[in-house]
Amino acid sequence: MSSTQPPVSGLVPCSTVLLTASAYARQDAMTATAIFISEEPPILSVSVAKHILTHYLIGESGEFVANLAAGDQLELARQLGSTHGTEVDKIEHFNVPVEIGEKVAAPRIQGSYASLECRVLNSYDAGDFVVYFAEVLASSVDPSKVPLVWHQGRYYPLENPVA
Ligand SMILES: Cc1cc2nc3c(=O)[nH]c(=O)nc-3n(C[C@H](O)[C@H](O)[C@H](O)COP(=O)(O)O)c2cc1C
Q1: Ligand 1 proximal residues by C-beta, below 6 Å
Q2: What is the pTM of this model?
Q3: In this structure, are strands 34-38 and 43-49 parallel, antiparallel, or unpaired?
Q4: Which of 89, 15, 101, 96 shows the shortest CA–CA distance to 64?
Q5: Structural domains present in the chain
């Protein structure tokens, strides 16, 4: 095994998720990753750092939207992952196109591959992070788009299946 291997977090190819949350008359959007836990009922999990605004908004509202970034949302993923909602209203500052969700107060991001509206079922304290397990209450997908994958600090539009 190589002695210069990247950190474990960089080894696992991840979904690129634009996570939105809303509470205290504030909203925020951040870049994150998500994985599916079960299909029936549809449950997914996200891991959110305790010190960031999104964590407080999800903690208060018990809701979020996991907007799965599309292949052409690379710049937005970078912007939302490198700025903090405590310093700037990212949705306004980056002109993020949003629309009201069906089931939760957090906004959907237009142009995403898919938007999954989620309600938190429970959470797990993981040191600097909280892992939220959430049920998907409503979802939409744009089949004309492809999802964006993040691996070792690089982004890949999920194209050209081999099987
Ligand atoms: C590709 C990518 C994935 C990320 N995944 C996570 C994640 O799963 N959990 C997390 O807390 N931060 C993650 N981050 C970092 C947050 O997006 C970053 O700290 C952001 O500024 C937090 O926004 P906020 O302070 O407005 O809540 C990720 C960043 C990138 C670029």
Answers
A1: 16, 28, 30-33, 47-49, 52-54, 81, 83-85, 150
A2: 0.96
A3: antiparallel
A4: 101
A5: 15-157 (2.30.110.10)
Cβ-contact 67, 108 below 8 angstroms = yes
Cα Rg, the chain, nearest whole Å? 15
- Tell me how crowded residue 10 is: count the other CB atoms within 10 A of its CB: 14
CB 124 within 8 A of CB 130: yes
Cα separation of 22 and 57, whole Å?
Answer: 6
Taking CA atoms only, the protein residue closest to ligand 1 atom 4 is: 32
pLDDT tens digits for 18-39?
999 999 999 999 999 999 999 9
